[in-house]
Automatic annotation (TrEMBL):
Keyword tags: Glycoprotein, Hydrolase, Signal
Taxonomy, superkingdom: Eukaryota
GO molecular function, one term: hydrolase activity, acting on ester bonds
Keyword Transmembrane helix: no
Protein's name in the database: GDSL-like Lipase/Acylhydrolase superfamily protein
Signal peptide: 1-20
Family: Belongs to the 'GDSL' lipolytic enzyme family.
Length: 362
């Protein structure tokens, strides 16, 4: 039985499910701001990060936790569906802390490729963090001896653990796009990004992981930051149904198709492992198609929290900075701060994954 069928079978009775019936007893998460639960904030990469104060975290936690949203993320909803606690960030762990239910290694701003790739191309100065996917993998390897010691012990433990490898890779493209890179140039970097993701996935399997979920990228052409930075008077660059930038969504689909192809090869190499592709793109597109149906009465393209402009994204007054304001009801918006989604949007994506519709193979 596959991951999301197992999880879905629990969703109706989460409050009464006993631990003995749970398909997974731990989650280990790697990625960027779409799943960081506090590592960036704890890393000290920025002296005064806005994600460390309200309105970030206002919806669910009632305080800022280091999550780049108003509330919970996809990884939080998956943990809840499994009856597991929200994952502690790796950098918050104390000596001797019980981490048997898993750890979150994701860092906001992280890239799939190592920082050197960007510094060599003279765009390293715009990076939020140097804690790339390989750094996160190193953290996991460092933690592993506290999880299990013998091969048999590790095999028994990891067969009940779920590994989420991403979403990662979005920032590899964001950094380049935001400093003037074009789609043709960025397409040339896709094989390198995909290889970094698959190498990390392979490394985790070599460490004992057998149950892995690897998400693709979201439709960036529907993101307020892209819609603002690449706004055009030419109506032909937008899809009529959603108002998103067609070329940038096409780029996301290209990355995702290459990732799916690479994961197919990885399945042949590791037939004993279950490698599931999580289609974030297709899970998100329904609420861009029909915002009202999903409760987004204030829309999906305009940010809830921002400093004005057609999409409420202003780079000089971003969410949390002076000149920005947050909407009264984030649940009526899909976009939180121009770059990241609201808890409500992440909830819909998680629901689509948990019930199997956007997870393959099943």
């Amino acid at each position: 039985m596959k991951l999301f069928i197992l999880v879905a079978s629990l969703c109706l009775t989460l409050s009464t499910v006993s631990s003995s019936l749970q398909p997974y007893e731990a989650i280990f998460n790697f990625g960027d701001s779409l799943s960081d639960t506090g590592n960036f904030l704890l890393s000290g990469a920025l002296a005064f990060p806005v994600i460390g104060k309200l309105p970030y975290g206002e919806t669910f936690f009632r305080r800022a936790t280091g999550r780049c949203s108003d509330g919970r993320l996809v990884v939080d909803f998956i943990a809840e569906a499994l009856g597991l606690p929200h994952l502690p960030p790796y950098l918050a762990l104390s000596k001797g802390q019980d981490v048997k239910h898993g750890v979150n290694f994701a860092v906001a701003g992280a890239t799939a490729l190592d920082p050197q790739f960007f510094y060599q191309r003279k765009i390293g100065s715009v990076m939020w963090t140097n804690d790339s996917l390989s750094t996160q993998l190193g953290w996991f390897k460092k933690l592993k001896p506290s999880l299990c010691t013998t091969k048999q012990e590790c095999d028994n433990y990891f067969k009940k653990a779920l590994f989420l490898v991403g979403e990662i890779g979005g920032n590899d493209y964001n950094y380049a796009f935001f400093v003037g890179g074009n789609i043709k140039q960025l397409k040339a970097s896709v094989p390198f990004v995909v290889e970094a993701i698959t190498q990390a996935t392979s490394a985790l399997i070599e460490e004992g992981a057998v149950e892995l979920v690897v998400p693709g990228n979201l439709p960036i052409g529907c993101s307020a930051v892209y819609l603002t930075l690449f706004r055009s008077p030419n109506e032909a660059v937008y899809d009529k149904r959603n108002g998103c930038l067609k070329a940038f969504n096409g780029f996301s689909k290209y990355h995702n198709s290459e990732l799916k192809r690479a994961l197919g090869a990885l399945r042949l190499k590791y037939p004993h492992a279950r490698i599931i592709y999580a289609d974030y793109y297709r899970a998100a597109m329904p609420f861009y198609h029909a915002p009202q149906h999903y409760g987004f009465k204030s829309g999906t393209l305009r940010a809830c929290c921002g400093g004005g402009g057609p999409y409420n994204f202003n780079n000089s007054a971003r969410c949390g900075h002076i000149g920005s304001t947050a909407c009264k009801d984030p649940s009526s918006y899909a976009n939180w701060d121009g770059i990241h989604l609201t808890e409500a949007a992440y909830g819909h994506i998680a629901k689509g994954l948990i019930h199997g519709r956007f997870a393959t193979p099943l």
